[in-house]
Specification:
The protein is of the alpha/beta class and 515 residues long. The protein has an 11-stranded mixed β-sheet with strand order 1-2-4-3-5-6-7-8-9-10-21, sandwiched between helices. Strands 11, 13, 15, 18 and 20 form a 5-stranded antiparallel β-sheet that branches. Strands 12-14-19-16-17 form a 5-stranded antiparallel β-sheet, with no helix packed on it. The protein is built from 12 helices and 21 strands. It is globular. It has helices spanning 43-51, 82-94, 110-120, 146-150, 159-169, 179-186, 200-203, 210-215, 221-225, 244-253, 283-296, 509-513, and strands spanning 2-8, 11-18, 28-35, 55-60, 99-108, 136-140, 233-238, 258-263, 303-308, 315-319, 326-331, 338-342, 345-348, 368-373, 380-394, 399-408, 414-424, 428-445, 450-456, 482-497, 505-506.
Amino acid sequence: MRTVHVPVHGSRLATDVHLPPAGQARRHPTVVIRTPYGRGSHIAEACAWAARGFAVVVQDVRGRHGSARRGAPKEWRPYAHEAADGAATVRWVRTRPWSDGRIVAVGASYAAYCALVAVTGDRATPAPPPAEAPDAVIAAVPALGTAEVARERSGVERLLGRAGWWAAHGDRSDSDPTALDARLARAPELLAHLPVATLPDRLGRPLPSWRGVWHAPREDLVIARAATARVPLLAVGGTHDPFAVDTLALWRRWGGPARLLVGPWGHALTADPGPGAQHHIAVGQTCARWARAACDGTLEHTARGVVALAGTPRWHRVDSAVPAGEARAYRFDDDRCVRLLHGAEFVADPDRPVRSDDLRIDPDRADRTLLVTEPLARPLDLLGPASATLRAEATTACADWFVRLVALDADGRAEPVAVGSARTARPERDGAALRVDLGFLARRLPIGTRLRIEVAGHHFPTHARNPHTGEDPVTAVRLAPSRRTVHTGGSALLLPAARLHRADAVADPIEEICT
């Protein structure tokens, strides 16, 4: 490995170059990883790519780690320069004696954004011509923009994740991944600070860009431009990743050959103990084989992929026509299947919000509508998008609605399945119908499972509290309770009940996505 500094407009970017054993004696296809998280954290990954015959370029993005200039503390502007700097890096790679000209842009999370805008361009930079674009992209759990990661598609603010990321990486050239956890250990109620806009005052260091996180409009620009892309894409996602919906949307809209690999993983592409642990797949090996096929031009020009069905060892084919399952409706007024436990009327109190980190139920608190299904008489395979329809009322000018789905086993142990949100901007007094998207599900529910359906007004601290005053939740300091009514008639949970036969099972997901 050697370190060089690649010139880009107004800066020089620290870049590590890893070559295969043949070194400069031969030309190689090149993997380019542009990251804000420190190029040193990618050494093992780079060595694995190099061992498979790829040259590897790992670069600190502008303003971060080795690419930070002394005396320029404000140079790090998330999402600001990545398309232009990526194009300059691609041009530089293609002039190297060890490059055969074929480039695969690779990244996860923010680095996936860097890889994608090297093809699509961004708001300040148009899509580059083919000579300045990579030949293929691998985008894992992509974080597609400031507003795209800060808010749900419903508009609800993601508080915990954004506070953690900005505390660790925002407005600084290095990283402190433990910054938020350390503060929470000393001040457990830190995230209840109001207004949210001044939260950095409690974090102990200035974050001048924090307010801009919430002012940025959600544009979904990368997804909108995906249809114009012509190079191959491998989108890797997890059903527990908060950005899974964006991963699926990117794959469906991509204009070139597109493959999808989704497992029971979170944002770190690791599975929690439990059903997901059955799905062992060498993601790195899979990506390398796909990259070789993409460079060789052997991928069919189709959009398809594989999804792991948690609770089984199986993988299943999907194509861009997802949903894969047929809707099974659990109507809230169907006493044969669903039982209302309590809370058809409840109070959503932001001073005592329903917590996202606690699945326990206090029967003495009327803070949510609570329903439970009858035990399943046979296993239920869920594959596709889930949603809920609510006929509901709120007495306040603005109201958030959260639907949380929890699986209860025969012993009553609770496991989260899905959560979704919707926001209304006016008092609803006539039981207006609301749709709440619950994301993409891929799991088997075993015999005897009961589903607990919760309808609440908050999901804190994962999401910021709606103050119910009509003010912006980011700047509000006053809180008010909101009375809610959920009408069981006209309300339902819609699950993608898949009919999966042995012929649908994919014995080798690697073969499926690399064809």
